[in-house]
Amino acid sequence: MTDWLADTRESYDTVAASYADYTRGLLDGMPHLRAALRLFAEEVDGPVADVGCGPGDVTALLHGLGADAFGIDLSPAMVALARRNHPGLRFEVGSMTDPLGDRVGGVLAWWSLIHVPDELVPVVLGHFRDALRPGGLLQLGFHVGDRTNLKTRGYGGHPMRVHVHLRRPERVAAWLRNAGFAVEAQWLLGEDGAVLFARRG
Asked: Residue 102 belongs to what domain range?
């Protein structure tokens, strides 16, 4: 495991409980993100992998919208929280830098690709494409910008060491097209967030 991956796993293990407290109910005040999730659930056909699921709340929301959703996260502490908070759903420890293994109808990666270095993003998107059935749907959420921040302190004031990569939607869209996806929509969320919908050809 490379240093950035080990740092990311350890950081989210450290802040797991505080992160879960911070994000609980966060979507209640974000109607556009809720709409993106509803549209994804309506359009997807088959199981959905929520990659970088954290404490599992979004996985549970997808399930509540009728999707056959399961979660994957790099952090064992996050997965343990998700299993405890949502005992009827499936969660497993895994990295998006490895093949997903499951054949799915949809992949959701909300604000989890942000920690992956630029040179590995095409590898990750290739894994997503390989996991998707023909016509399968991918939805990415990420921070918008042209810089990388090193986050050394996070949720609850706990120490972290994670790089947060801010990227322009057009750059992410180009990566998607190069990986064999058709980009269907790009939603800007204010000035600092974006959601992209893409479909495997």
From this structure: 3-200
